[in-house]
Each structure stands twice: as C-alpha cells, then as structure tokens.
Amino acid sequence: MRRKVTMKQFIYFFIIYFLLTLALFIVMNQLSSRTVESSLIHSSKNQMEYADEILDGIISEAALYGTRFVSDIDVRFYPQQRRELGNYDYQMKKNEILRRLEDILISSHVVESIGIYWPSDGTFITTSHDLLASQIYQKVQAKGWQTVGGSLYYFAKYPYIQTDAGAFPEPYIVGVQLKTDYLRSLLGKAVSDAASSNAFYVVNGKELWSSRKVDEQIAAAMPELIVEGLGDGIQDGEIRKFDYKSSEGDFYILAQYIAQIDTYLVTYTRMSDFLLPLDRNRQAFLLSIAAVVLLGLFVIQMFYRNFYRHVHLLRKKFQLVEQGNYNTRIPHKNDNEFSSLFNGFNHMMGEIQGLFASLETETELRRTAEFKQLQAQINPHFLYNSLFYIMSVAHSSPDAIIRMSKHLAEYYRYMTRLDTRPASLASELQLAEHYLAIMSLSKQIRYEIDLPPELADQPVKPLMIQPLVENAIQHGIEGRQGACEVSIQVRHDEEGGVVIAVSDDGKGLDPAEIQLLAERIERSEPPEGDRGIGLWNVSRRLKNTYGESSGLRFVANSRGGLSVLMTIASPTEGGG
Q: pTM of the predicted model, to two decimals?
C-alpha cells in the first residue's frame, strides 16, 4: 500500500512538473516574442527618425532656395530692367538669372527644377525642360508646399504681404521642384532589408509614393487607418504604431506626420517573419513534451530512480536561461525518454541565439546610418573660419573667394560622402590638398605633396592622413612664429608596406616630449582631454586594421619641426 501511494505521489509530481514546464515555456516564448517585437519597433522608429531628419533637411534646403530668389535684388527689379535695357542687355540679364538657377541644380542633388514667373506679362524663367511648366505657376494661389502632377513644389511669392501694387516692384512667384525619385529613395533608409518590410508616403490623404510595390490590403486600408484614424490628433514628427491583421499575416505599422508638406511617412513590417523561428520552436517543444509524457507514463517504473536527476538538470538549465545565459545546453548521450525534451531545449536556445544575432546585425546597420548622418557635423569651426575669411576678402579679392569656395566645396563633398569602405591614397591626399589650400589662403602656408603614381590606387581607411595634417598646422606651425611649410611624402618601406610622412617646420618636440607622445598613443585607453586624441585614434585604427606592425612614429626633422611617420603594413604582414 505504501509503494502505491509513493508511486501516485510521484505521478502527481510528474504531472505538476510537466504543467509547470509547459507554463514556463509559454511565458518564455511570450517574453521572447515581446522582446523581439519591442526591439524591432525601436529599431524601425530610429530608422524613421533618421529618414525624417534627412527629409527635413531637404525641405529646408528647397525653402531656402525659394526664399533666396524671392529676396534677390536682380530678380525683384528684373521687370523694370526689361523696360529700361536694350534687347541684348535684357537677354544677358535673363541668361545671368538662368545661370544662377542652374548653378543650384549642379550643387544640389534634391532639386529637379527652379522657376520664376511674373503673372503680369507671363514672363517665365526656368531650368525645367517641360514646355508646359508655366501652366503650373499660373495656377499658384498661395505660397508654401504643394503637390502638383505627382511632384512636390515649394512656392514663394513676392511681395510677402499684399498691399498697394505701386509700392513694390511687380509681384512674381518662385517655385522649387524636388526630385520625386530622390524622395522615394529615402524610403530605403526608413525600413530594414527584410522582404516583408516596406515604406511609402501618403500624400494628400490618398496618393501613395513608394519605391517598391505596397501590399494591396495595407494600401487599401491607409485612408481609414492612417488619415481618418489620426485626423488632427497627431503632431508634427510624432510616430504612431498600429497593429494590422490581413490574410498575409500580422503587421505592425508606423506612421509619422510631416506637417510642412502635409504628408505621412508610413512603414510596415510583417511580424510573423521574425517570430516564425519561435513558433517552430514552440511546436517542437510541445511535441517533445507530448513524447516525454507518453513515454513517461509507459515506463515510469523503469526510470523511476533516474527521474529526479533529469528533472534537477532541466530545472538548473532553465534557471541559467532566466539569468541570461543563452549559451547553455544539455549534453546527453543516452537515448531515453528525456532525449526529445533535451533536444527541444537545445533547439530552442539555438533559435533564440539566432534571433539575438539578427538583432545585433540590425543594430549595427542603424549605427552605420547614424555614422553617416554625423559626418555632416564634421569640424564646424573649420567651416566657420573659412566662411569668415570669404567675408573678409569679399570686396578686395574675388579670385581668393573663388579658390576658397572651390576647395571648401570639394573638401566637404568628400567628407559627407565618406562611408566605411576603404578609400585610396590619391583620394585621401586630394582631401589633404584641399584642406592645405584652404589653410594657405588664410594663414600663408606653403605645402607640397609627393605621391608616386604606382601608389595612387593603394587602398587606405578614410580619414587617416587628415588628422596628421591638421595636427601639423595646429600644434606645429601655429606654435612657432615664421613657420609656414608642410610636406607630405609617400614611399614604400623595406617590408613592402607604405610609409606616409607628414612634416612641418613648426616648433617641434624635444626627445623627452617625443617619447612621452609615443607612450600616450600606445595606451589602450584614450588620453584625457582633447590633446592627443586624434593621434591616438589614428594609431588605434592602424593597428586594428593593418596589424600591430603598423602605427605612428615621431622624429625631429632638419627644419626644426616634427615629422609624423605613418606605417601601413602589407596585407601579408599586417593581415588587414
């Protein structure tokens, strides 16, 4: 009788443990699903915010062009000059205005066309090749953003305030048309690379702009779900989340309202694609539990002595998982009733690890997008100083303005298109040359660059040489009165690598200071303060990319200044 009672208690315990295990798995599965969904939504919001920042910059840029020409003196008094100038001078004035409009198209990658229209006599100056473009301007009644014929326009009007027509020159309209294809290309920055994710604009409450085909059911639900559902309750820039179920699966939809252009930026992602591994894992686990129960009830007496040992092991592994140890596994060799349970646990942990790996990849892509966004903020003081120089010589030296503007444009065009792919020595030295040319205009600096032709296409990580050139000017030349020379020389070293020497005739360093500087950049942690952080960063990047044999060396040169030698090891030596 006692034996039967003990067995009954064991069976009860087995049933209770089975229910607890099943409940624990369900809870873990729900937590895992919520974690994955929360991470995906957070990542999608970050991508939408990044795309919105770019779009906001485009909107501001177009509005700036419109305001610029509305307040332009030449444009404002152009009708009066038509009456006062001869045909030739009048045509030259018109060509000058058109050239200025076309210059904007050359420098901007977001503007499709710019036009200026005088309603009084129908005069129209535009960069557009559309013969019917003037009809769009004839229908303009108000300033601001408008969608016309599938294109986005910004219209600015002169005068700003309607008053007596005799008090102002003739009124006119300036229109800036954005590139629709470029606006669609921004949608790629608002979504992940998953095939089930997509983004589009909802324009005027019904018109959809997208670079890819939008799900038909979601497209049909947009007017009711987004526009009518939000109404006036959503603020500019606010992101709202919606859940949507269709025959294709469960989706989450994110909508952001852009008030300036009265447009919604919408993204959607099918959650089932990301939760499918968890669903499969749950099914496998349930099947394993069923197999264990059937086998346990059939042979419970045979494996009675080993039961508690397996239960203790399984409970211990679940505790490790709750503590965040997703690398844990249950090793087993015996083919018994617990094998399926252990295999299901190991399979579940493998699937969860795979999901976390996918999330890490998604996070890295977001960081890369943020890195590109931050490049637009590179060295603002350098830009301010260059602009102040242009202002100082605006009346005395137009040639200096042209040279400064050219080098400044080339410099920032290169900086803003940087990415994580290697550049070449030729392109990096061209960037350094633009920088030195800018500095030579304002600081009377002489420079020379020696690059052998065979090394021009040598790949190199971007922004390796530029910090050394800046350091030579800021801490070398500016520290010694009369110093004015900077040289950059590139050559092969004896081991087949490349040595880049950046030298100046500045104040230089004594041997003790050189030794101290070399020790500071070799440390694993960056130096305190701002001094030396640029050299330390270059040194770390060299060693991480090209191996420990690469790095920086400092030697005093014959001109009394300092030479910084950058060594880039060959691929076979450095492994980079």
A: 0.44
